[in-house]
Write a structure and sequence with these properties.
Carbon-nitrogen hydrolase family protein, Nitrilase/CN_hydratase_CS, hydrolase, 11 helices, Nitrilase/N-carbamoyl-D-aminoacid amidohydrolase, 324 residues, hydrolase activity, 2 domains
Length: 324
């Protein structure tokens, strides 16, 4: 059995050093609890730039610039400190962060093993809607799964988890433990027109990823703290009506789709903790292995080639030979 946890907590919003200090404290807490994998939400460090969804672009620019100023590099002192904390705690750590590369910012996921070594870094392939005003796109081949002592580990950001091609790519890399990083679900709280952004809708995505892929899924996410609401909304009345404090909904799902953790109060920092057994994956894939006996790569090719013209028998035959 492996003890894993999805973090539900409020970052020190748009403050890299403050959030780093909290990150290290949470990793130390995980070590005391013998947690072997601790996962944080999307752009946990330095916090998700909610304002881009709520304010006119130029009105949100001050907060966008704060977000950029608090983005960190993959080889910078903040990441080294997180690796050192993971080593001291003896805990694998995965977290979403705003990655600076030169003068561009990316929505990234990094993972460290329990020796403090950086074993994974990847960028969100396609930021969603307003996110494209802040973050660049990751490279097409940035679907990654790494071998660890606790299993084959990978992760995707937010709505990357609902895109069929992304899912299939990760499944074909034989992922066993998936980290689906999400922001807080406090934005557009109670707005019936924004159900697709709700905790309920997006936890369904995490649950279906687990069941479809026959893998474990950790779904960490953040909390919007009451003291950050004024800055997030910029004093705008409409924005203030769209966002509320809380929005935490961390969970862990098993390879048969069942939820393995009880809900945490949405306003409360905490860990959604589960003991997982990779043997459950074998049982799930007896019925459906999307990268093996339940896969039809020739059908995938036929569907994809329709965008550039009808598939021809020779192409399908070649693909079938490749899959053997």
């Amino acid at each position: 059995m492996t003890k894993v946890a999805a973090v539900q907590a409020a970052p020190v919003w748009l403050d890299a050093q403050g959030t780093l200090d909290k990150t290290i404290a949470l990793i130390e807490d995980a070590g005391r609890q013998d947690i072997e994998l601790l996962a944080f939400g999307e752009t946990w460090l330095p916090g998700y730039p909610f304002s881009i969804w709520l304010l006119a672009p130029m009105k949100a620019m001050e907060l966008v610039m704060r977000h950029r100023a608090n983005a960190i590099t993959v080889d910078g002192p903040e990441m080294r400190a997180i690796g050192q904390a993971a080593k001291r705690a003896g805990t694998h750590v995965a977290l979403g962060y705003a990655e600076r590369d030169g003068t561009s910012i990316y929505c990234s996921i990094a993972a460290f093993d329990n020796r403090g070594e950086l074993i994974l870094n990847r960028r969100k392939l396609k930021p969603t809607h307003m996110e494209r005003t802040v973050w660049g796109e990751g490279p097409a081949d940035d679907l990654k799964v790494v071998e660890t002592e606790i299993g084959r580990l990978g992760g995707l950001c937010c709505w990357e988890n609902m895109q069929p091609v992304n899912r299939q790519g990760m499944y074909q890399l034989h992922e066993q433990i998936h980290v689906a990083v999400w922001p807080s679900f406090g934005m557009f709280k109670g707005n019936p027109m924004a159900y697709a952004l709700s905790a309920e809708a997006n936890l369904v995505q995490s649950q279906s990823y687990a069941m479809q892929g026959g893998c474990f899924v950790l779904a960490p996410n953040s909390i919007i703290a009451e003291e950050h609401l004024a800055a997030i909304t910029g004093g705008d009345e409409f924005a203030r009506m769209q966002v509320g404090a809380g929005g935490g909904a961390a969970a862990v799902f098993g390879p048969d789709g069942r939820r393995l953790t009880a809900p945490i109060d949405e306003f409360t920092d905490g860990f959604a903790v589960a003991d997982i057994d990779l043997g459950m994956i074998e049982a799930a894939k007896v019925f459906a292995d999307p990268a093996g006996h339940y896969n039809r790569p020739d059908v995938t090719r036929a569907v994809l080639t329709r965008s550039s013209g009808p598939a021809v028998p020779e192409e399908l035959e070649a693909l079938a030979e490749e899959a053997q």
